[in-house]
Amino acid sequence: MKTMLFLSYGTREEAPCSGSAVRPLCMEKAFQSLGYRVISLWGEPGTQERARHRERFWQALKKENPLFCYVEGPSGPVRDWKEYRLLHRITVEKQVPLGWFYRDAACFYPEVWQGRSWLEKSKQPLVRAVTTAEQRWLRRQVTTFFVPTESFGRARGLSPFYPLPPGCPPLRAGFCPGEPKGNRCIYVGGVSRRYGTDLMLRAFEKLNRQRSYPLTIVCRQGEEAFFAPFLAAKWLTVRHDTPQTLPALYAQHDLALYPLRPGAYQKTVFSVKIPEYLAGGLPIATIRCGETARFLETWGVGGYCDDSEEAFAKLVQQMLRQREEYKRMTERIPLCVQENQWSHRARQAASVLLTMTEKRNET
Q: What is the C-alpha to C-alpha distance for residues 352 and 357, in angstroms, rounded to an integer?
């Protein structure tokens, strides 16, 4: 059986609630679905649990000849010399090709930290310095970097790199393309100005002055304080669902919302929420923001507009009123989901690493 290595720097959760925890688990399972025997290492760096697992991982690796190693990098720098030593052993002692998924570069973009506390902002110069140093070291170890989008890789100056955006979960059971059944809209995710929560709510305030446009927001408990003035609105429902209950909730709605405000960093990222919405069978309304808008336009499964509450309100209204175009969007969703599964992402990663290794061996 084909054997590979898989490294993640978080706790393995069978039902993860955050996007950063979803991706590693889905990639591990995707490699397994392709027939790989996956030797995995999970756990938070610096913990005793991680140290125990790391030692068992290395002892097992001594007896193996894996084809490649795929790493889901953490949101920030690893900052643990024992982890660096393990990577060096994998690439130098075992001569295993290494692919590193570069998850996050928020520390290089001051716009991301607007509105944060002084303490959080004060840490960023150190985080940037450590991240830059780690990236230089990784360049000497890594066969190729994997990145969320092509523009992300270019912005960070990585070479070589290969785009590996989030994959789609399976299309929800019972999905049937068709016209909207109503005007029910849903947003699932973080709550902040950068995420466009305030813009979205003001847009729906305008919409509901003319006609009923119910809005459901699914967020973490306590986050609703950000939009407290809107909580009494009859058109707004706030929920705190788990990933297991979301497919049934998506089935009750007509349109998914992703009002992320444009910015230098936001234009390069691609949220796991986009494929999740599509797997839920919903077309998506978003702000014109780089990679997200490009993906929706390419597959014809959503619409986008300028960064204003008026434009967003008009977009939502048009997408739900233009029933034939809405139907065409829903008809395109199954193919989009099929062609962007997590198994496709794992197959792409394996192919890139194996091809690059063959080319190196030839030279």
A: 9
